[in-house]
From TrEMBL, chain A:
One of its GO terms (cellular component) is PeBoW complex. Required for maturation of ribosomal RNAs and formation of the large ribosomal subunit. GO terms for molecular function: ribonucleoprotein complex binding. It comes from the Eukaryota. It holds the Pfam family BOP1NT. It is found in: Nucleus, Nucleolus; Nucleus, Nucleoplasm. Belongs to the WD repeat BOP1/ERB1 family. It comes from Drosophila suzukii (Spotted-wing drosophila fruit fly). This is Ribosome biogenesis protein BOP1 homolog.
From TrEMBL, chain B:
Residues 321-414 form the BRCT domain. Residues 543-552 have a biased composition (Basic residues). GO terms for molecular function: ribonucleoprotein complex binding; RNA binding. PROSITE patterns: BRCT. One of its GO terms (cellular component) is preribosome, large subunit precursor. Keywords: Nucleus, Phosphoprotein, Ribosome biogenesis, rRNA processing. Pfam families: BRCT_2, Pescadillo_N. GO terms for biological process: maturation of 5.8S rRNA from tricistronic rRNA transcript (SSU-rRNA, 5.8S rRNA, LSU-rRNA); maturation of LSU-rRNA from tricistronic rRNA transcript (SSU-rRNA, 5.8S rRNA, LSU-rRNA). Residues 454-470, 498-524 have a biased composition (Acidic residues). Residues 619-630 have a biased composition (Low complexity). This is Pescadillo homolog. It comes from Drosophila suzukii (Spotted-wing drosophila fruit fly).
């Protein structure tokens, strides 16, 4: 390929280019590097334009090509063309192959004159005459460092013309070869240096800047000065051929003057003078159509279109309210209107509506949950209307409203617009329900630990209390004086004054023992009588079963205790929690929660005998109670209350409390209503005739309710709770069976102090007066009147 | 008999999920959305969601099955399908560059016709008026929009045209009732045929480019598409109700043959219409609004005077007063003031208005007109001022309309700090916080007392300050005067001597009493005891039993609390909620009250210090002057 190098230098072309190159080389080094880039690029492009090139090539004869070229070349090529003709005639076989040679076609564009010389290249074995017509393009690919003769000598070996055609050469990137030569041998890629080699060459080789890589062969090609001059001309936008003279005189081949006489002597046809009949017909048809209104002018059409474009409005509704029967959507729910703005939204609101620092902070903090904000905007104050900007969220708000309108599910809901007061049941005023205790009038101090239990003498003069400091104290109610203190061995869990006014006995539950104490207060005859009664045990006529014997032992108190007033001791097999008297004062019942199926016991005082009423345990017994009139026995387990008939020995009723843990019970003196207190803050009122479910559930307390008590005479009941409050309520039971009991909370008495999560432990009523006693964890007993 | 299966009847068949609806209607989600917006079909909230969704508990969008079946018969469903076909075919034409066919197709673009939907959604005219709020607010917004990708120029132009027409109606019918400048825009409320129609006009330049997540203009544009049609028909009927020509035209008197009008009549007219400053052409010649109103009043009087009638009468009187609020006043709007809202206000209440002709077409007179009574300005100061007119800030007009009287202008003068602008939409009888300004408006007597107390306090402050100044500056003079006085006393000794004499005997008497008591104790204890007993026995004046109010209140509260615990368990949650709401309301009120108090205290303090300083300066200056004089 490089063999034709030298020959190209012949004639007038060679010398001037050399001169130009020499003169410009020194000064334009940088420019030239840029040019190189420019050269490389078109080369790549040309590979893509394969199709066009081929077309061009196949269509045009050599002469035509030359004509398209500049004048200067035109003449020069004429000479060479004759030579080419010779050549063509000589070897016609070459022509076909020539067309395949795409790489040369590309170059043809740059220097069209060279195409002929390429043809000579097609046959490497062609004669010397062919080699004379070396083209500039071939020159470009030649290696200038080698002398001419060397090239010619080695021409046979070195002609590594690639035959792959005009394809993207990167297809061969993965292979060692880069294509195939004429003999269908692989053209191996020349060894590629790495970047360091490149750099070294850049340093060492003075001609590096004018070396380009031939993409087809992968070999470096040094550009000649001529090429560079050519490139420069192209880049600068001049005509590539420097011999072309743009300003040479114009040769007027055809005259521009208008001749008076026609050049040709043929007269015009008659048709050209006469109007066309067919056109006339067509026009008349159109005129008729226009006249008849079948057709419209473009202007009219335009106007009509304009008029038709906008919507047309007319009287859609004839009257304001008349309703035309039409299909509508089913059960329409109109969207609610937006809320109207308040003062805060004003551009100049009263100053208190503006946010202070705290509110601003809060507002900003709720950025992720804007629905929680107090206002959906931040109030702002502007000095004048001029300063008010457009609201930044206005568009968004309108958009959200649109979304609401078509995307928000709608339903008709009745909005409850009531006052909270309306929900409170209508009850009589407490003032109409007097008397009831309202103030604390006495505090009984003396105990040193929490007071568990309190009980009042049936006549209402004395009071007994049992405490965790292992003492039982007897107080005079009116003066608050502690008359007697009876010390016991263990914590006193419960005390109960015998309700029979003819006896003066207190039952004291302390540890495992139940003590029957004669308090020795009040009527001395009564005291004496009681002492006599309890002095001796009545003869035992019935043999007691083993089950009872192991559970209970009756015994007279020992001398030491006799002095304190203890008369009889009933020793149980488990610690006693609660003791309660029957109304007549002969029977008493005790509760031992740990006693399993023997946890409830009934003792008969007159016969000094005990019974175990239940053979099976139905749960952890919390509380027992005698019915005031009937022979019934109430047993409260944790969840439920069972009522047993003691005569028939059977279960009468089971009351469902629906609570977690029952703490106490109290029965109305008439025996038809039961009040239950629970540790889950509730009090339950059972109407025993009505149902087994509570008639009313009261949540008056804020903490566990410890105890409840009915008054014997007044329609009152009281409850004590761990929230240190005693709540006195009105609980009226009517004789009329149809009328439901009336329950009215009357007064909250909260004077006890809190100690270790405990408040009020026990409440009890005075038998005659509307006075209530409460014992608390603060070691006091308080009287409210 | 076939056993009924689950979810084959009842609520499950009443509702249909959106997915199923799409399948049934054979529409894409976009088309379905468009159809729903245009037809006013919305999702429903079922009573039992689980049952309505055939057992699934996730939240789906549910529609009434009947609604969807109703959509099935809608004619615009076919138009929507035609759109799809049109898009396909025209895209094909474009792709194969068949422009002739494309042009033909574009001319045959399937137009959607919504007239029947308007009638169907609003069977009566009143229904349409009820739904006008959203429509007007949206159209007023869109009328300000530039041409956007999704909102064609024509649409915003149409919005502008229709809203202007509506404003013309409002002006002509004088139906505007309340106005409010909010930070969001201007709220207007008109009463049209007994319906309250409220709309918002945004402040200048409301348009801002928005991200698609924030605002989807496509959806809004569909709404506008429907609302324009609806407002057009509404306007048509409203205009005819007032015997005005629709579309609005001017009487020939306005259209004088000037150069402008001859040049481009269409744009000339549309400009003048947009100016809102001229009466429109009427189809009848007589104006009898006032007479009609009088007749109404008489009828009301005849009916008798139950409370409701009296109230109605008062309302009617107020409205009639409002309609002629600005009658006889001439306004001029300065260039910095937003023109349109003010023109609406002034013109609807009978005033005359004009503006600088360079801002907008249609100004009636110049600033130099001497008959102008009010000039609305919104700048701190003005170079040339006419003495014959009041220079007021725009808020005056709004406040006047809300108060339905002409307020004194002194608080609204040029450069004054404006009083707060209150919302007219709040209920004056509400039980939440009412700012003192509003209270003053409700009860005019409060204004005076408030002012008086202010004056008093200021006077007091002044006195205090005077004293302070005296003490500081005139100590020497005082001392001098005092010395002179003492000297005078010494010289004459008249009245002062008498006083001293009088004082002395009193002291003696006291001493005497003491002596006597001692003697008594010493001499006779028994008699004393007797006396004491007697005193005990005797009737003494009873002490007034003082009721400890706090204790009584506490007792009442306790009682109430106890009673509140008796609320039925099924109402307990509701009760708690109500109580909580009440508490938050009270807290809010308390907070506002507290803020107001602190603000007022601060203001007072600031005023005091300012005055004191001013006085000090003045005194210092005076002292200096006196020194110089000496």
């Amino acid at each position: 390929m490089t063999k034709k190098l030298g020959l190209k230098r012949k004639g007038k072309d060679a010398e001037p280019t050399k001169e130009v190159a020499a003169s410009s080389e020194a000064s334009e080094n940088e420019e030239e590097e840029d040019l190189l880039q420019a050269v490389k690029d078109p080369g790549e492009d040309s590979t893509d334009d394969e199709g066009i090139d081929q077309e061009y090539h196949s269509d045009s004869s050599e002469e035509l090509e030359f004509e398209s070229d500049e004048e200067g070349n035109y003449l020069g090529r004429k000479q060479s063309s004759s030579a080419e003709e010779d050549e063509e005639s000589g070897d016609e076989e070459g022509e076909e192959e020539e067309e395949e040679d795409d790489s040369e076609d590309e170059k043809e564009e740059e220097s069209p004159g060279t195409s002929k010389q390429k043809k000579s290249d097609d046959k490497p074995s062609s004669s010397g005459a062919a080699t004379k017509k070396a083209s500039t393009k071939e020159l470009a690919k030649g290696d200038p460092s080698k002398p001419e003769y060397q090239d010619s000598d080695t021409s046979d070996e070195e002609d590594i013309r690639n035959t792959v055609g005009n394809i993207p050469m990167h297809w061969y990137d993965e292979y060692k070869h880069i294509g195939y030569d004429w003999d269908a041998k692989k053209i191996i890629k020349p060894p590629q240096g790495d970047q360091i080699d490149e750099f070294l060459r850049k340093i060492e080789d003075p001609d590096f800047w004018r070396t380009v890589k031939d993409p087809l062969t992968g070999q470096d090609v040094r550009l000649t000065d001529e090429d560079i001059a050519l490139i420069k001309r192209i880049v600068s936008g001049r005509i590539p051929n420097k011999d072309h003279d743009e300003y040479e005189p114009w040769i007027e081949w055809f005259t521009s003057e208008v001749e008076k006489m026609p050049i040709k002597n043929v007269p015009d046809h008659k048709r050209s003078f006469l109007p066309s009949v067919s056109e006339k017909k067509r026009v008349s048809r159109m005129v008729h159509a226009l006249k008849m209104g079948w057709m419209k002018t473009t202007e009219e059409v335009q106007r009509e279109k304009q008029a038709k474009r906008g919507p047309k409005f007319y009287m859609l509704w004839e009257t304001d309210t008349s309703r035309e029967h039409m299909r509508r959507i089913h059960d329409p729910v109109s969207a609610p209107k937006r809320d109207l703005p308040g003062h805060a939204e004003s551009y100049n609101p009263p100053p208190e509506y503006l946010f202070d620092a705290k509110e601003t902070k809060e507002w900003l903090k709720l950025k992720d949950e804007p629905h929680k904000r107090k206002l959906h905007f931040m109030p702002q104050k502007f000095k004048s209307l001029r300063e008010v900007p457009a609201y930044s969220r206005y568009l968004r708000e309108r958009f959200l409203r649109c979304l609401d309108l078509y995307l928000c599910p709608r339903a008709k809901r009745v909005k409850l617009n009531i006052d909270a007061e309306y929900l409170i049941p209508k009850l009589p005023s407490p003032r109409d329900l007097q008397p009831f205790p309202t103030v604390e009038s006495m505090v009984y101090r003396g105990h040193t630990d929490l007071v568990r239990s309190v009980s009042v003498e049936p006549k209402g003069e004395y009071l007994v209390s049992g405490s965790d400091d292992k003492t039982v104290k007897i107080w005079e109610i009116a003066t608050g004086r502690c008359i007697r203190t009876i010390e016991t061995d263990e914590v006193v869990r419960c005390v109960a004054w015998c309700p029979n006014p003819k006896l003066s006995i207190i039952a004291v539950a302390t540890g495992y023992r139940l003590l029957l104490v004669n308090p020795k207060v009040g009527d001395k005859v009564l005291v004496k009588k009681t002492d006599d009664l309890l002095a001796e045990a009545p003869p035992q006529d019935v043999l007691e079963s083993e089950r009872i014997k192991t559970a209970v032992q009756w015994s007279n108190a020992e001398a030491e205790e006799q002095e304190k007033g203890v008369r009889v001791v009933i020793t149980h097999f488990k610690p006693i929690r609660q003791v309660t008297w029957h109304g007549r004062g002969d029977y008493l019942a005790t509760v031992m929660p740990e006693g399993a199926n023997r946890s409830a016991l009934i003792h008969q005082l007159s016969k000094r005998r005990s019974q175990i009423p239940f053979s099976k345990s139905k749960g952890l017994i919390q509380f027992v109670l005698f019915h005031p009139v009937k022979p019934c026995f109430f047993v409260a387990t944790q969840h439920n209350i069972r009522i047993y008939d003691l005569v028939k020995q059977e279960l009468v009723k089971k009351l469902l409390t629906n609570s977690k843990w029952i703490s106490g019970m109290s029965i109305h003196p008439k025996g038809d209503n039961l009040l239950v207190s629970t540790y889950d803050k509730k009090m339950l009122w059972f109407d025993l005739d009505l149902s087994t479910k509570p008639y009313q559930t009261m949540r008056l307390h804020r903490n566990a309710v410890r105890s409840v008590a009915f008054h014997l005479r007044y329609p009152l009941f009281a409850s004590g709770s761990d929230d240190q409050a005693v709540i006195v309520s009105h609980g009226m039971v009517y004789n009329d069976l149809l009328q439901n009991p009336l329950i009215v909370p009357l007064k909250k008495l909260q004077t006890h102090e809190k100690r270790d999560e405990f408040g009020v432990l026990d409440v009890n009523w005075h038998p005659v007066q509307p006075w209530v006693f409460s014992t608390g964890a603060d070691c006091t007993i308080r009287l409210y009147t | 008999m076939r056993r009924p299966k689950k979810y084959e009847s009842g609520e499950a068949t009443q509702y249909i999920s959106r997915r199923a609806a799409l399948r049934k209607l054979q529409l894409s989600l976009n088309d379905f959305r468009r159809l729903c917006i245009l037809k006013g079909v919305y999702p429903r909230e079922p009573k039992h969601r689980r049952r309505a969704q055939k057992g699934s508990s996730e939240i789906k969008v549910l529609y009434h099955t009947k609604d969807i079946r109703f959509l099935l018969h809608e004619s615009i469903v076919w138009t929507l399908r035609d759109y799809k076909i049109f898009a396909k075919k025209s895209n094909r034409d474009r792709a194969i560059k068949d422009f002739r066919n494309l042009k033909r197709r574009l001319a045959l673009f399937p137009e959607i016709k919504l007239d029947h939907i308007v009638k169907e959604r609003y069977p009566t005219f009143i229904d349409a008026l009820k739904d006008l709020d959203d429509c007007l607010t949206l159209l007023f917004l869109f009328s300000t929009f530039p041409s956007l990708h999704l909102i064609p120029r024509e649409q915003s132009n149409l919005c502008r045209r229709l809203t202007i027409e509506f404003l013309h109606y409002v002006i002509a019918s004088k139906s505007l009732r309340k106005v409010f400048i909010s930070i969001k825009g201007y709220y207007f409320q008109a009463e049209i045929k007994g319906q309250k129609v409220t709309w918002i006009v945004p402040h200048y330049y409301p348009f801002k480019p928005q991200s698609r997540q924030e605002v989807d203009f496509k959806v809004m544009s569909i709404f506008v598409e429907f609302y324009t049609i609806m407002l057009g028909f509404t306007n048509f009927r409203l205009f005819h109700g007032l015997n005005l020509a629709y579309p609005p035209q001017f009487p020939s008197s306005v259209l004088q043959d000037s150069e402008d009008s001859l040049k481009d009549e269409a744009s000339f007219v549309s400009d003048r219409i947009a100016a809102l400053n001229f009466d429109l052409l009427r189809t009848d010649k007589v104006q009898e609004d006032e007479e009609e109103l009088d007749i109404d009043m008489e009828l009301l009087e005849q009916d008798g005077d139950s409370k409701r009638i009296i109230k109605m009468k008062q309302e009617a009187q107020e409205v009639s007063r409002l309609r002629t609020l600005f009658k006889g006043l001439k306004f001029f709007i300065n260039r910095e003031v937003p023109r349109e809202p003010l023109v609406i206000l002034i013109r609807s209440f009978g005033g005359k208005v004009s503006w600088d002709s360079s801002i907008f077409a249609g100004s009636a007179y110049d600033e130099t007109d001497e008959t102008i009574t009010h000039q609305i300005v919104d700048r701190p100061s003005l170079a040339t001022q006419y003495i014959s007119r009041d220079y007021i800030q725009p808020q005056w007009v709004f406040d006047c309309v809300n108060q339905r009287t002409l307020l004194p202008t002194n608080k609204y003068f040029l450069g004054e700090t404006l009083p707060p602008h209150l919302s007219p939409f709040v209920d004056s009888k509400r039980d939440t916080y009412i700012p003192p300004e509003e209270k003053a408006l409700l009860d005019p007597s409060l204004i005076e007392t408030h002012a008086q107390s202010d004056d008093d306090s200021e006077d007091e402050a002044e006195k205090e300050e005077e004293e302070a100044v005296d003490q500081e500056l005139l100590d020497a003079q005082l001392q001098l005067a005092y010395q002179q006085e003492t000297a005078e006393y010494k010289k004459y000794g008249g009245p002062d001597g008498v006083n001293e004499d009088e004082e002395d005997p009193e002291d003696d008497d006291e001493e005497d009493d003491d002596d006597e008591e001692e003697e008594e104790e010493e001499v006779d204890e028994k008699t004393k005891r007797l006396q004491e007993e007697k005193q005990k026995m005797s009737v003494q004046s009873g002490k007034v039993h003082k009721v400890n109010k706090r204790q009584v209140h506490k007792a009442e509260v306790d009682e109430h609390r106890l009673q509140a615990r008796m609320v039925k368990p099924r109402h307990r949650n509701l009760f708690r909620k109500l109580i909580r709401e009440k508490q938050t309301k009270e807290k809010e009120e308390w907070l506002l009250r507290k803020k107001r108090r602190t603000i007022e205290a601060d203001n007072k303090e600031a005023r005091k210090t300012a005055k004191r300083e001013a006085r000090k300066e003045a005194a210092a200056a005076a002292a200096k002057a006196s020194k110089l004089g000496k």
